[in-house]
Amino acid sequence: MNCRLKPKNDRLLISPDVLPDKTESGIIIPESAKDRPNQATVLAVGPKVEDIKEGERILFGKYAGSTFKLDDESYLLIREQDVIAEVLEG
What we know:
Layout: E1 11-16, E2 39-45, E3 57-60, E4 66-70, E5 73-79, E6 83-86
Antiparallel strand pairs: 1-2, 1-5, 2-3, 3-6, 4-5
């Protein structure tokens, strides 16, 4: 993704995972009942971020950061300290 935003200080720009609209059995989940996602891909990092790189998959605090929309996509800006763990593939 060609990101037009550059986070400041210790902030990360992330793209939260999209949660399913239906359960495995086919029940539709309304927006008001959905949990907020807690896994994301890092799109950009601020200059003071030390341990996290662009493209990493992370697990972050449930109520961390500020959500916003840009070009019909949802993004989240969080602090480096809100990252709980790196999600490893495999």
